[in-house]
Amino acid sequence: MLTTRHGVRPLGAADLDAFLALARRDPVVNVFADYRATTTNLEPRWLGGEMWGRFEAGELAAACHVGANLVPIGASVDDAAAFAERALARGRTVSTIVGPQDAVRTFWNGVASAWGQPREARWDQPHLELAAGPLVAPDPLVRRTTREDMHELYPACVAMYTEEVGVSPEYGGGADLYRARVTQLVNRGWSFARFDDTGRLVFKAEVACATPYAAQIQGVFVPADRRGLGLATAGMAAVVQLVRREIAPVVSLYVNDWNTSARRVYERVGFYETARFATVMF
Fold first, then answer.
1. CB neighbours of 248 closer than 8 A, spacing ≥ 6?
2. Following CA atoms 255, 257, 262, 268 in sequence, which dihedral angle do they give, to the nearest 10 degrees?
C-alpha cells in the first residue's frame, strides 16, 4: 500500500469497502461522503476530484473528500492537520470547506496562510437529526415537484441559494449547470414543494443526498412575504414524513447558529442537535 507523508494517499475503487466502513461509523453525519462514494465507486472521474485517506498501521483511519467541496470524514485534529499539509502542496481547488467543526477549523488553520481570504466563514452550524415522525401536523399540500413546476421552482431555488450563500448560483455563467442540478433533484423525486391556490410556490425543500441510513435536507425556503405563517413548520413536517417513509429512516440537516427563526422551525418539527458543523466559503 503506497502512502505519502503522514500516511495520506488518494483512495480508489479497491478502498471502497474500507471507506464505507469508516463513513458508517457515523452514517448520518457522513451521509454526503457515503452517498458520493457509493455513486462514484471512488473513481476520480466521477468524483470530480479525489477522496484522500489517512492510514495508521495499514488501516484507514480518516478520509477527506476533495472536489468542489472539501469534507473531512471521521477526521481527528491530527488527521485534519495531515490533510491540510497535503492540500498545501496542491493549492486551493475547492470552493467550500464543510464538515464537523473541529476538523474544519484545524484544516483551515493549516491552509489559511496560503489559501487566501475566504468570502465567508460560518463556524457554528448545528447539525440536526430526526429519526421519528414529526411533532406537528404535516402540510397535506406538500408534494413532490415535477418538471411542469420548474417555472416556479427554479426561481425559488435561485432566490434561496442567493439569500443563503450571498451570491447567485447563476453568477459567472452558472445558470445552465444549476438548472441541471435542480432538474436532477426533481427527476430523482428529491424535490418537495407546496403551491398556493394561484399556483405560486410558497414552500420548498430538497434532499441533497441520501443513503439507506439517512437523507440530508437542503434548500428550505419560504418567500419573504409568506414567512411567519407556519408554512415552513408544516412543510418540513411533511418533508420529514415523506422522506422517512420513502427514502431513508433518518432526516438530517445543518443550519447557521444565528438563524433563530429556522432553528425554531426545526425544533418544533422535532429535530435535535447531534454535532456542530462549520463552513468556509470562497
1. 210, 211, 212, 213, 214, 215
2. 100
What are the CA-CA distances from residue 269 to residues 144, 164, 189, 257 (Å)?
Answer: 19, 21, 22, 17
What's the pTM? 0.91
Buried b (16+ CB within 10 A) or exposed e, 219-231: bbbbbeeeeeeeb
Q: Which amino acid is at 155?
A: P
Give the contacts of 280 (CB within 8 A, at least 6 positions apart).
Answer: 96, 97, 98, 104, 108, 118, 120, 121, 122
> Residue 223's Cα: distance from chain center in Å?
22
- Laid out side by side, the sheet with 201-210 consists of 8-10, 50-56, 59-66, 69-73, 96-100, 272-281, 120-130, 251-254, 215-221, 201-210, 191-195, 143-144
**pLDDT tens-digit map of 18-65:** 999 999 999 999 999 999 999 999 998 899 899 999 999 999 999 999
The Cα–Cα gap between 79 and 75 comes to: 5
C-alpha cell belonging to residue 242: 415523506
d(CA 249, CA 271): 13
Task: Work out the widest C-alpha separation in the chain, in whole angstroms.
Answer: 63
Quick one: cell of 263?
432553528
pLDDT at residue 236 in the model: 98
Domains of the chain (ranges; CATH) run 5-116 (3.40.630), 143-274 (3.40.630.30)
Is the separation of the CB atoms in 213 and 34 below 8 Å?
Answer: yes
